[in-house]
Write a structure and sequence with these properties.
The chain is of the alpha/beta class. It is built from five helices and six strands. The strands form two sheets. A three-stranded parallel β-sheet has the order 1-3-6, sandwiched between helices. It has a three-stranded mixed β-sheet with strand order 2-4-5. The radius of gyration is 14 Å and the shape is globular.
């Protein structure tokens, strides 16, 4: 846990470890055309960097299992519908979000 909020921005592929890194952040912003998923099952392996732990905490067990078992890759819009990302936008949109957070008090 870092002492300040973290924001992941996904503008291209965030597959496997890329998504797992984003899941470790406090907030996630994705471009509409981003590719987001845990495709390891298609390679007969399991996500190894926390995806099997963080995704169920974020989405619930059933939805997380569906995404992991099917190796489904979502675009940014669908990832927002599923609850993986909080915002659809660009790096600039994430900077604007960070600027809104910056003047607030420290996270307790």
């Amino acid at each position: 846990t870092l002492p300040h909020p973290t924001i992941a921005v996904m503008e291209g592929p965030a597959l496997g470890g890329g998504l797992e890194l984003a899941l470790a952040c406090d907030l996630r912003v994705a471009a509409p055309k981003a590719r987001i998923g845990l495709p390891e099952a298609s390679l007969a392996i399991i996500p190894g960097a926390g995806g099997t732990q963080r995704l169920p905490r974020l989405l619930g067990r059933a939805r997380a299992k569906e995404l992991i078992f099917t190796a489904r890759v979502l675009d940014g819009e669908k990832a927002k519908e599923y609850g993986i990302v909080e915002h659809i936008g660009s790096f600039e949109d994430a900077l604007q979000l960070a600027r809104q957070i910056l003047p607030q008090g420290p996270v307790a």
